[in-house]
Design a protein that fits this description.
This protein has ten helices and 21 strands. It is α/β, with parallel strands linked by helices. The strands form four sheets. The chain has a seven-stranded mixed sheet with strand order 8-7-6-9-10-11-12. It has a seven-stranded mixed sheet with strand order 17-16-15-18-19-21-20, sandwiched between helices. The structure holds S-adenosylmethionine. The site of S-adenosylmethionine has 17 residues, from helix 5.
Length: 467
């Protein structure tokens, strides 16, 4: 018989002992592992369970009996509701210590291979306002912080972030501390304008509504891109909105929009229409410049991205005569970053627009020893491709959170590069992939890097060398 949530017990005086995956804090009660959001190791709390299985449970804090000395005051008024910064109430040095532990535990538990002790994690210089990209969602199903008996339809319109675990609920955000200042003002003024115009906010259940999302990207050069995503084509209203943005925020250097009539929010398969300005923004890194289009991936913490790339470059110990494969190259940032110390670099990436940017990025930086290919990695990186393009001496791979497809891992193993530099934003899938290479490669260095302060996310670079 399934137990009703209400029947689940309250655990009193639960000592929080860990912080881990999904940003949850962890306590132990007899044999039960209890996951508690927004608690900090060292806290002693009363927890109302919301889910209970044989070996683990989830719960919410209902009373804090003792505050951990590892706590700090979170500046954000949305902390505790918004899922973005689960660790904002934990001191930054402690966040780093838990990320270090997360990397170590993932490699140990999920990989099961030998590896040297990870080097101390490289922390982020900026721990607030470090993101260069943010996506907000319009919704007519705003989360009501103080539910009332009667709410006007218009009051249910919100513009902000999805609440964790609720695809259809939006937390209307006032100030977010992760982005540079124009993002907050832009969001708030755009929301007010759209409310005045009586535009409809999207309903994620019925898939009706005019306003869906908007994305802001700010480059270190000061270039600013804004992309509006509309739920259907309504030329007059689109023009009104875009005019408002253009006039209110003259600092926007690339103003674009997309019409998305699909049920999902992905826009990588849709056309971005330039309303005014350039179709891209320009990022700068050392003495290189990078054009970044609206559909292209670029690391969201620009300052740390430089450190990440420099660390990966140092690990590769290139001497200048190597053929390097840069897998999951995005806009070719790593390929172009390392090209000066390689004979040739081949970048492979799924998003065609990113590959087009990657080629332009080589061109505008005067780099002539790179080639880029667009397509799904598992389909492009074949034995024939390697025969045609040459066996790589070094592979740098930077896949998305899901890690690499098993066939990509075996293809790399078959190519037998002397070194593999594996950059990952998910140590769990990284450990899984490395375990597949265990027969042929040994792990010789592990370097975690923090790109996302206040979140549980950690980037990790592993160097593998042929046994
Ligand atoms: C973590 S990003 C790394 C980008 C790049 N290395 C950088 O630092 O800017 C992962 C990249 O993999 C691409 N990608 C995801 N799945 C892919 C696939 N199956 N085949 C090829 N590329 C893929 C994404 O579009 C994205 O650009």
């Amino acid at each position: 018989m399934r137990r009703n949530k209400k029947d689940l017990p309250i655990l009193q005086d639960l000592l929080i002992v860990d912080a881990g995956a999904e940003g949850m804090a962890v306590g132990r009660h007899d044999m039960l592992v209890v996951f508690v959001p927004f608690a900090v190791p060292g806290d002693i709390v009363d927890v109302k369970l919301t889910k209970k299985k044989k070996t683990y449970a989830e719960g919410k804090i209902i009373k804090i009996n003792k505050l951990s000395p590892l706590r700090t005051q979170p500046p954000c008024s949305h902390f505790g509701l918004c899922g973005g910064c689960r660790w904002q109430n934990m001191r930054y040095d402690i966040q780093l210590a838990f990320k270090q532990k997360l990397v170590n535990d993932s490699l140990q538990r999920l990989g099961g291979f030998d590896f040297p002790e990870p080097k101390p994690i490289i922390g982020s210089k900026d721990i607030f306002h470090y993101r260069n990209k943010v996506e907000f969602t319009f919704s007519n199903r705003k989360w009501l912080i103080h539910p009332a008996d009667h709410v006007e339809e218009k009051e249910m319109n919100g513009l902000g972030f999805h609440l964790p675990g609720m695809f259809d609920r939006i937390l209307d955000v006032d100030t977010c501390y992760l982005f540079e200042s124009p993002a907050n003002e832009m969001r708030n003024r755009l929301r007010d304008f759209c409310q005045e115009q009586d535009f409809t906010f999207y309903n994620p259940r019925t898939h009706l509504g005019f306003l869906r999302n908007f994305i802001i990207r700010l480059a270190s050069t000061g270039d600013l891109m804004l992309i509006m995503i509309f739920g259907y084509d309504s030329p007059d209203d689109i023009d009104k909105t875009m005019q408002f943005l253009k006039q209110t925020f003259p600092q926007i250097s690339s103003l674009q929009y997309v019409i998305n009539t699909k049920k999902n929010d992905t826009i990588t398969d849709l056309e971005c229409i330039v309303y005014s300005g350039l179709p891209y923004i320009t990022e700068k890194m050392n003495d290189l410049v990078f054009r970044v289009g609206p559909l292209s991936f670029f690391q969201t913490n620009s300052a740390q991205a430089l450190i990440l790339y420099q660390t990966a470059f140092d690990m590769a110990r290139l001497v200048g005569d190597e053929l390097v494969y840069d897998l999951y190259t995005g806009t070719g940032t790593i390929a172009n970053f390392i090209a000066h110390k390689a004979a040739h670099v081949i970048g492979i990436e799924y998003v065609e627009a990113a590959v087009a940017d990657a080629k332009i990025n080589s061109e505008i930086n005067g780099i002539r020893n790179t080639s880029f290919y667009a397509g799904d990695m598992a389909k492009i990186l074949t034995t024939e491709f390697i025969l045609e393009n040459g066996r790589p001496d070094v592979v740098i791979t930077d896949p998305p959170r899901a890690g690499m497809h098993a066939s990509v891992v075996s293809q790399i193993e078959e190519a037998r590069p002397g070194k593999i530099v594996y950059i990952s934003c998910n140590p769990a899938t990284q450990a899984r992939d490395i375990a597949l290479l265990e027969q042929t490669y040994k792990v010789t260095a592990v370097q975690p890097v923090d790109m996302f302060p206040h979140t549980q996310h950690v980037e990790n670079i592993v160097l593998l060398e042929l046994k």
